[in-house]
Design a protein that fits this description.
single chain; 422 residues; alpha+beta; Cytochrome Bc1 Complex, Chain A, domain 1; five-stranded mixed beta sheet; 15 helices
Length: 422
């Protein structure tokens, strides 16, 4: 796939990467290597709250003017915070790059964090927390990761604990941004019809003088694996929501291609073992899937399903049976070839979307420090053998599964025994 990728590092350490692609659009983003895991119990939720506050006014623009200007640019703009990353991004027509860079630079460098705006936005964030608490298929994942990571910051919710967020103020949020948004953690990325030299000049002018303490990733403490935890959280719901899982691999692990294909085979698409056995053959769940959550130094493989409370034990036993099958039997060449085709199709289809491409080059810079070509990824999948799947499944599922259940059940109703994978 033709590509024109360029990278420039400013004197202060900010990385600027672009991928020139024939298009009428450009997707641009500011990515910061900061997320919920860079917090402490007393300031959990700060990264997410800061993300909100960057749209709430600068000396030259009110919050309303910022919103109007993004809308006037006509494309799409958004921001998000995750466990390890915060991103601010927009997709616009190629003749609006200078304008969107000016707007994004202004909110990134000059946001006021006025106390009355903090008070107003705090209520918005508290409502967001309430929304997740009222959405069981979201809440179950927070409960599961809390059990999996324990007291480690990876177990914190991105939104923060309600009582901590309720106490946040302008001074604390400013200090968090000052200490965490340092130049060596910032990547500015763009994909589309973008001129690299001109794009760099736009950001050099705005951010060339940004400074801050150099701490690097040594600030992050690696999690220690825990003994499997099984927890029931009682809630009066129509369904029981379950997440089962085990520790996985870091983003940079050499076996990452094997892990992804293992996930596809287990529950990653409609022909996967879990979808076919639990939904199609037994009719136990409308929604069932496996998923990967990976970080720079750790990760996990999870399985989510929502079922009638009366069939929780049957569903858990079926999931355990399919996992055990991967651990005990080699996958056929035909099934593995199908999984590879599915994985590669996903990669190449995402190449049609500028936002996906910009996100991809930014994540690869943050994770690997380099450009990763589509062909390199396709080759990575092609090299996986059935015995690689078998070996990794044997390794990952060598201990009992973690499990979290949210629903209208009593402890005595649940049989955790199949999850021991004996």
């Amino acid at each position: 796939m033709a590509n024109s990728y360029q990278k420039t590092v400013l004197d202060n350490g900010i990385r600027i990467i672009t991928e020139k692609i024939p298009s009428r659009t450009v997707s641009a983003g500011i990515w910061v290597d900061v997320g919920a895991r860079d917090e402490q119990p007393h300031n959990n939720g700060s990264a997410h709250f800061v993300e909100h506050m960057l749209f709430k006014g600068t000396p030259s623009r009110t919050a309303q003017e910022i919103a109007q200007e993004f809308d006037t640019l006509g494309g799409m703009s958004n921001a998000f915070t995750s466990g390890e990353t915060t991103s601010y991004y927009a997709t616009v027509l190629d003749d609006q790059v200078e304008r969107v860079a000016g707007l994004m630079g202004d909110i990134f460098l000059n946001s006021l964090f006025e106390e009355d705006e903090v008070v107003r936005e705090r209520e918005v964030v508290l409502q967001e927390i309430s929304m997740v608490e009222d959405t069981p298929d979201d809440r179950i994942h927070e409960l599961f990761t809390g059990s999996l990571w324990g007291e480690h910051p990876l177990g914190y919710t991105v939104l923060g604990r309600r009582e901590v967020v309720a106490a946040m103020d302008s001074a604390g949020l400013r200090e968090y941004m000052r200490s965490e948004y340092t130049p060596e953690r910032i990547v500015i990325a763009a994909s589309g019809n973008v001129d690299h030299a001109r794009f760099c000049r736009l950001w050099q002018k705005q951010m060339g003088n940004l400074s801050g303490p150099k701490t690097g990733n040594s600030r992050r403490r690696q999690p220690t694996p825990l003994a499997p935890v099984r927890k029931l959280h009682k809630k009066n719901l129509e369904q029981a929501h379950l997440v089962l899982g085990t520790y996985g691999l870091p983003l940079v692990a050499p076996e990452r291609y094997v892990l992804y294909l293992l996930h596809v085979l287990l529950g990653g698409n409609m022909s996967s073992r879990l979808f076919q056995e639990v939904r199609e053959k037994e009719g136990l769940a409308y929604s069932i899937y496996s998923y990967l959550s990976s970080f720079t130094d750790s990760g996990y493989l999870g399985v989510y399903l929502g079922v009638d409370p009366a069939v929780v034990n049957k569903a858990m036993a079926l999931v355990a049976r399919e996992i055990t099958g991967l651990r005990q039997n080699s996958v056929s060449e035909e099934l593995l070839a199908r999984a590879k085709d599915y994985a590669k199709a996903g990669i190449f289809l995402s190449a049609e979307n500028m936002e996906s491409r910009m996100t991809r080059i930014a994540r690869n810079e943050l994770t690997f420090g380099r450009y990763v070509s589509f062909d390199e990824v396709a080759a990575g999948f092609d090299q996986v053998r059935p015995e690689d799947i078998f070996d990794l499944a044997t390794r990952l599922f060598s201990q009992p599964l973690f499990a979290t259940v949210l629903g209208p059940l009593k402890a005595k109703d649940i049989d955790w025994h199949p999850l021991n994978l004996e």
